[in-house]
Amino acid sequence: MESNSPSELALFDAIFTTRAMRRLKPDPIPDDLIGKVIEAGLCAPSGGDVQHWRFIVVKDARIKLRLQVLYKRAFDDVIQRYRANPPPPGKTLAQKNRMLAAVEYLTDHFHEAPVLIVCCLLDDLSKKLGLEKMSGASVYPAVQNMLLAARALGLGATLTTRHLIYEAEVNEILQLPANAETFAIVPLGYPMGRFGPVSRTPVEEVTFLDRWGAEYR
Q1: Which of 80, 131, 155, 157 matches a 20 to 30 Å C-alpha distance to 25?
Q2: Where exactly are the structural domains of the chain?
Q3: How far is residue 200's CA from residue 26's CA, in Å, rounded to a whole number?
Q4: Could you give the 3-state DSSP secondary structure of residue 94?
Q5: What is the pLDDT of residues 86-140, one digit of tens each?
């Protein structure tokens, strides 16, 4: 994909190289960078422009450790299922195992990330209306903006939702009010590894033209 626009090249470079970075250094992150990441999230679409997202920046070592205990327990609940699954599309078994090793590393070192950004919604109307598929529609775009912003700032991050297996316990630790829910946690830190291209299934294999099953060209 080519363009004469430098800003567009920068945008697509970020999109195509924003990999899940699960190995993070414990080095502190300046508050202004954390603020930029969250500000990028606030620029995302919001249904009805209600902007009912809320973000908890967790730095306290004791709170992070309590969250890590639950995160590890959730990992133990699901890891056998992960291991039994076939490799993701286009990936080898070796690549899958490397990914699982990174997932396990994040699990064991979750509390060592300098910042955990807990992404929440307040008074999520979609659930009140029984529209479960809409739930989170106003927070996950914000999370993606945050991941891209982190990439632009040289910070590693990943979207994780496993804590929801123990949602009630997490809510208690974070002292969420009854009308607030968490949807994701983004561990944020300087990456130990390097950024690189994202590996995904080709467009043609996941896209149809006009109707399901019709070849897209």
Answers
A1: 80
A2: 11-206
A3: 29
A4: helix
A5: 888 878 888 888 889 999 999 999 999 999 999 999 987 777 777 677 778 889 9
Q: Tell me which residue of 82, 123, 129, 133 sits closest to 104, measured CA to CA.
A: 82
Q: What type of residue sits at position 163?
A: H
pLDDT in tens, 19-54: 999 999 999 999 999 999 999 999 998 877 778 899
Supply the pTM of this predicted model.
0.89
Decide: helix, strand or coil at residue 139: coil
Write out the H or E segment, with its range, that includes residue 144. helix 140-152
53-58 and 180-189: which strand pairing?
unpaired
Asked if residues 107 and 150 have their Cβ atoms less than 8 Å apart, the reply is no
Give the span between the Cα atoms of 147 and 124, in whole angstroms: 23
- The overall average pLDDT reported for the chain is 89
Highest CATH level, class, for 11-206: alpha beta
